[in-house]
Amino acid sequence: MTGVSIFAAVLSYLIGSVSFSYVITRWVRGYDIREHGSGNAGATNMLRVVGKGPAAAVFILDALKGIAAIGLGSLLSEGQTLMMVCGIAAVIGHNWPIFLGFRGGKGIATTIGVTATLTLAAALIAGAAAILAIILTRYVSLGSLIFAAGLPVMIAVLDYPTSYIYLSLVITLLAFVRHATNIRRLFAGTESKLGSSKPRS
Q1: In a domain? residue 173
Q2: pLDDT, tens digit, for every residue of 175-194?
Q3: 181: Cα separation from own chain's centroid
Q4: Contact 40, 192 (CB under 8 A)
Q5: In the structure, what pLDDT confidence band is assigned to residue 198 with cuts at 50, 70 and 90?
Q6: DSSP-assigned states of every residue in the chain
Q7: Closest by alpha carbon to 105, among 20, 3, 195, 5?
Q8: Is residue 199 part of a domain?
Q9: Which of 10, 78, 87, 128 could be bridged to 114 by S-S, CB 3.0 to 4.6 A?
Q10: 177 within some domain
Q11: pLDDT band for position 1 (50/70/90)?
């Protein structure tokens, strides 16, 4: 990687590391969102703990982090690969933010921002499947995993650049790593559903 590429990736990571769920909860409620509900610094836990409005704001702002990272990559290079690398760096920052001791969210909203910017059609199809799964099962984690797994498939089917396929596999891997405990609970039948009074991480 060139110096410009490294700079772009690091800055994108720092953009991703800004935790809006933490900031907004501190502002609205005066406490750390990670100490309540599921303990996750993300929109779903915000919905359960703080409310619909703040959760919607966090979702949009987290998605904008991904869009901003792609914009940075585009500004510094015309290469498609750097844009995707910046997007991945933002997702990593969201998941493991340097500003919060590397305890962040699960990166789905930021991933949506990244993929909707670079691969809109693929993101829409994978997103539709995810939303349907959430409606039918009320498992947000299952919908998130379906979205993440469907991305590289649809990117390949819709004939996006090959580099996008490989880099989207990294995004998929990141999502599955962050949802490891959710996957175990899904198989065990103990995962919390949307609206559950006993949220899990």
Answers
A1: yes
A2: 999 999 999 999 998 888 88
A3: 16
A4: no
A5: low
A6: --HHHHHHHHHHHHHHT--HHHHHHHHHTSS-GGGSTTS--SHHHHHHHT-HHHHHHHHHHHHHHHHHHHHHHHHH-S-HHHHHHHHHHHHHHHHS-GGGTT-----HHHHHHHHHHH-HHHHHHHHHHHHHHHHHH--HHHHHHHHHHHHHHHHHHTT--HHHHHHHHHHHHHHHHHTHHHHHHHHHT-PPPTT-SS---
A7: 20
A8: no
A9: 87
A10: yes
A11: low
Beta carbons within 10 angstroms of residue 46's beta carbon: 30
d(CA 84, CA 164): 7
Residue 33: give the domain boundaries: 3-188
pLDDT at position 197: 52
Counting every residue, how long is the chain?
201
| pLDDT tens for each residue of 89-103 | 999 999 999 999 999
Average pLDDT over residues 47-51: 87
State the residue for tokens 């996957």: 183
Nearest to 75 by CA among 4, 16, 25, 167: 4
How far apart CA 126 and CA 149 sit, in angstroms, is: 8
User: How far apart are the C-alpha atoms of 97 and 178, rounded to whole Å?
Assistant: 13
- Whether 150 is in a domain gets the answer yes
pLDDT-based confidence at residue 201 (cuts at 50, 70, 90): very low
Q: How far is CA 198 from the centre of its chain?
A: 23
Which of 113, 120, 130 lies closest to 160 in space, CA to CA?
A: 120
